[in-house]
């Protein structure tokens, strides 16, 4: 296992806030960042170099890959051909298998199901007949979700009754989809695991996540899971990461249904990347998720994921970022703004992490 | 007092590692950085924009100042004309008075002396006759120091005996100088104070600093000062900052001679900027010195300077940075590398901060 020395260039596909925070982490370790994106974004401000180009332009991707030492990505919808073009020249970490598993909900759920890990019931939907059969099998309420390109609650239609089938199909534009049955749960949590090139793993503490309008609102540590469920949740994440021969930060979102449920922990979805629910690690851990993602893909050892403070991360969505003067007056509040110009509704403009002395 | 909103541009004179860490802190707060430097340096990698130009090119400085919202600097040897050219267009923080006081050892010591703050005995030296008179007054051992452009022990000659006068003058190139008498002390410490545009101050914990070959080697918190001396040291720094109507991070290096000394605390020198002895604040505080410098010059409130962990910062000088693979395997060690190519002897290549649970 060869570690990339300081001065090496990390290639990042994508230029959003995750890329920005990855670029900062890379700089801290003496590594340079060359981002590739189809639009100018927050990561460009702190990157050594950037290339503007379409994600499906494999020639451009190849030219870019030639200039970097390792390739990673900040979003899971990288075209597989682009990843393959890059992989022909330089290591892509996490690898193509993680992308394949994560960018198609049907592939993702099939993969996790095969590992024997509990999931909400699901069925493929390519037509109205499929949907009617799926409702027959799974029942309502349920959620119709596009197989691809869904995030922050987009590309989803919640069905309360079977007679909403046509409405739901229209709502998601009749795209290839899955029907997912509702799972009764107490709360949502996420496991953020760092897996090194040598296969060693380290887990961050598991936060409680709350959502508003389908978008993550807060992540809080310590979270709600009792120790035995923490072990179980980590085991789920480890099995997924091992199966994918994963390198970097992997996030597994879980529903927690309580100790007495048949399946206390049910996988919601996985993200083959650093994750919004891990932003608190920047301020509450010596080594944050961005640091460990860069370390992993550069072949460095994973740093300990221990937490020195309790923390609550709150997203600043849309106009909430305009409250920066008040937030700047709060004590023990770490402000992170992503440098985006337009505070459109639903847009992640920044986040704050409120720190408290360590309790557990 | 108007605070600069996110999206504003921070102009930084200088492109070294201090500028690099300032640029990262600015990015976190949603502010952009435009650096100005006469050489390409570590700060350029993480800056939104940079201008290469001589520091004494006031026309170029003016053009640059027109593109930024506030001007700061990462080194104290900014030509005063350059600072004045910038100040004619945009606020320069800290201001020209701090630069004047800090870039000439004679002006610095005269200023501090007038405040009634203890200093090592000193005298101006412009000729051999001056030096002989100074030796007569102060005695030996002593250190002959150039008035300007000294750092990391450069531009200094240590004199053990009066007959070394000519050697010492030759050693510093017969530049305008001061002779400084030796002060007996137990250890060196530094006060790092953040002062806002509103005059409010916050102090970081005072580290113990050790040096090797005139270059800072380690800074450790908690430091050695008993509480009453901490109060006294902070008072010294506050008076200096207030007198300069200072905005940003100010560093005051002090010799500590022990509780029973006539002057337990003696000022060694001041630096009108973020300082190497404050690098541990990145990893051991929710808001580090770089964060608070940016907040101050942007007119934001100063964030609390409380520490969540004990810390020891160790500089990586020259080839010490080649130990990164071993350092990366250490637990609780935060690695910071500055992206410099050549590990020349005496060159600051990076630093590590080793964290421990909070004791005091």
Describe this structure as you would to a colleague.
Two copies of one chain form a homodimer. Chain A has 360 residues and is an alpha+beta fold. Helices cover 28% and strands 28% of the residues of chain A. Chain A is built from eleven helices and 17 strands. Chain A has helices at 17-28, 58-66, 80-87, 96-102, 105-114, 128-138, 165-171, 227-243, 281-284, 289-297, 324-329; strands spanning 9-13, 32-37, 49-52, 70-73, 122-125, 142-146, 156-159, 177-181, 187-195, 201-203, 208-212, 215-221, 248-256, 265-271, 309-317, 333-337, 348-357. In chain A, the strands form three sheets. In chain A, strands 9, 10, 11, 12, 13, 14, 15, 16 and 17 form a nine-stranded antiparallel β-sheet that branches. In chain A, strands 3-2-1-4 form a four-stranded parallel β-sheet, with helices on both faces. Chain A has a four-stranded antiparallel β-sheet with strand order 5-8-6-7, with helices on both faces. In chain A, helix 1 crosses helix 10 and helix 2 (58-66) runs parallel beside helix 3. The longest helix of chain A has 17 residues, at 227-243. Chain A is globular, with a radius of gyration of 20 Å. Chains A and B meet through helix 1, helix 11, strand 16 and strand 17 of A and helix 1, helix 11, strand 16 and strand 17 of B.
**SSE arrangement of chain A, N to C:** EHEEHEHHHEHEEHEEEEEHEEHHEHEE
Distance between the termini of chain A: 36 Å
Give helix % range of chain A.
25-40%
How much strand content do the residues of chain A show? Answer: 25-35%
- SSE class of chain A: alpha+beta
> Which assembly state applies to the chains in this document?
homodimer
Low-confidence stretches of chain A: none
Task: Specify the biggest β-sheet of chain A.
Answer: 9 strands, antiparallel
